[in-house]
Amino acid sequence: MELRDIVSGSRPVRIPPDATVADALVAMAENRTDFVIVDRTGIDDAYGIIFRWDIVVGPIADGATLSKLPALSCARKPVVVMHNLDLDIRWVAKKMANENVSKIMVFEGENFLGSVSDIDILKAVAAAGSGNDKQEGS
Amino acid sequence: MEINRLSLRDVVKTFELPTISPEAPVLEAINKMLEAKCYTILVPRAGPHDAYGILTKRDIISKVIAEGKDPAKAKVKEFMSKPLVLLTNLSLDLRWVANAMANSRVSTIAVFEKGDFYGYVTESCVIDGIYHAMRRAKIEEGVEFVSC
Which residue in A61, A89, A122 is closest to B95 by CB distance? Predict the structure, then answer.
């Protein structure tokens, strides 16, 4: 199974670059999502991404005031992206493991196609009924 | 918003996690996760002198699928984390719950009270707990709660 088979075309929730951590938390809770995209300020800027985990182990663990702290202070930037739609999902999983993320944004050329999550991979594996016992690099 | 008014007791989930045998294939764990829409599975202990284990979606992604192992053949016991990360003080400030997750690098912590399994807390519980506290605070102030 390949990346193109599991990519989801739904648009991720986005917050402006000047949003606070509290804004990010509210956006996640209200949209029932575990991540938000932080918009870029211009064409020469990169998009950021914030996972629930980033808020919990950063600002909350530090006891910060969430309504005063910029969201970008706990964002991962730039977002992890993939372009090769023919890639086997094993390598998508490997990318998630290497980058320590559970979501990857997918582009085809300059066009945003959607995102892929760790749960999308689990669903694909369950549907296939078994994994891909392949050799490295095959 | 004062998140330090929240404690572990305010956010802990008290329903039980799905369980799976350590000898079961990882594919069975994936199916249980998807069926229950719960991406953490508890592995029961063999007896009072044994420890509980836990298997998360992250374990499956990074240790099984990313390594090219076959989930139909790989066994849960090879990839689970054991023993569990535990908290026992239900009055613990939420900040220290978050610190426990950060220090242990785990997103699910089991909660025991007086030696018995009480429930568990995840990063999602922490976020939702703070969100609801923010809503309550705004309602008490008479301010309409508007998200960004």
Answer: A61
- At A32-55, the pLDDT tens digits run 999 999 999 988 999 999 999 999
pLDDT at A138: 38
B134–A34: do the CB atoms touch at under 8 Å?
A: no
DSSP letters along B35-50, please? HHT--EEEE--SSTTS
Residue B132 lies in a domain: yes
CATH of residue B45's domain is: 3.10.580.10
Please check whether residue B146 lies inside any domain of the structure.
no
* B147 lies in some domain: no
By the CB < 8 Å criterion, does A85 face chain B? no
pLDDT tens, position by position, A96-124: 999 989 999 998 887 889 999 999 999 99
- What chain A holds in terms of domains, given with CATH numbers, is 3-128 (3.10.580.10)
Interface test with B, best of A122, A134, A135 (most B CBs within 10 A): A122
Return the residue matching tokens 């949003």. A19
List CB contacts (< 8 A) between A118 and chain B.
57-58, 61
How many domains are there within chain B?
1
Across the interface, which of B27, B124, B148 has its CB nearest the CB of A23?
Answer: B148
Which of A61, A132, A134 is facing B99, going by the closest CB pair? Answer: A61
List CB contacts (< 8 A) between A19 and chain B.
Answer: 148
Instruction: Print the domain residue range for B75.
Output: 3-141
Please state the ipTM of this predicted complex: 0.80
